[in-house]
Amino acid sequence: MTVTINSSVNAQGLDDLELHVRRSHEAIGRVSRGLLALAMQAGDGLLEIRQRKLVRHGQWSDLCRRTCSSVRTAQVYVKLAKARALLEANPQTSAHLSIEGALRFLRQQGGTSRTSRGGSLSISIAPWLAAPPAERMRYLKRIGLPGILAALPPEFRTELDRRRSAPAAGLRLSAITGAFKQAMSFAKIDNTAGIINSLNGLRNLLRAEGLDPDGIERIVIEAVKVEKSARRAA
């Protein structure tokens, strides 16, 4: 096979030619890495369309052909987007990956691993476990909050709601307890105005909790009546 070399290149010396080859090779690498990033961006868009159910199931293949020329190409983009965390887990490795290199890398990682329920995971958990918190945060930011919420198990949502409400509930309980203690303190020094203000604040706090202060007061009055009747009977 004959290779034709441009005369301007052919006129250069060995050192210059080596530099030319190296720069050309580095440029090819930059283009390849740019293509991988664009492929993952295309996959992100396809995943968003699928997750939001913007097209019907029967129209998915037509959409792939319109946007990506073929269903197979669209599948590659989706696969790369799903494996973004794995591909970016080691920046030194991902910096040299082309689309074909990324697909080869994923195959070397074992392809898909079966779960206990017979499903499949498109990415390995090992890089995530090995990554420091700062890198994990960066991956989650790249995925975005909608993607995280879409993949969040129901039991995680319950736990997050519990943790979110616990501090607020603790602060409200502390405020109610504080108002009650303040009212008792004013009672000891016979400060009627202070007692009234404290009790009004306590009533407002109880109403904010969805409780009926008047109902609670009636229960206390009835309890006192029952206690007095029991004492007289004794």
Tally of separate helices: 13
Which stretches are low in confidence, meaning pLDDT under 50 for 5 or more residues running? 1-5, 111-121
Integer count of domains: 2
Order of H and E elements: HHHHHHHEEHHHHHH
Sequence of strands across the biggest β-sheet:
1-2
Please give the alpha-carbon distance between the first and last residues. Answer: 118 Å
Report on the biggest sheet.
2 strands, antiparallel
The gross shape turns out to be: elongated
Radius of gyration equals 34 Å
Mean pLDDT: 76
| Binned strand content | under 5%
- DSSP, total strands: 2
The share of residues in helices is: over 70%
Structural class: mainly alpha
Please tell me about this protein's structure:
This protein is mainly α. Helix content is about 75%, strand content about 0%. The protein is built from 13 helices and two strands, in the order H-H-H-H-H-H-H-E-E-H-H-H-H-H-H. It has helices spanning about 5-10, 15-50, 60-70, 70-80, 85, 90-95, 100-110, 125-130, 135-145, 145-150, 155-190, 190-210, 215-234; strands spanning about 115, 120. A two-stranded antiparallel ribbon has the order 1-2. Strand 1 and strand 2 form a beta hairpin. Helix 3 packs across helix 4. Residues about 1-5 and about 110-120 have low confidence and may be disordered.
Describe this structure in a few short sentences.
The protein is an all-alpha fold.
List keywords for this structure.
234 residues, two-stranded antiparallel sheet
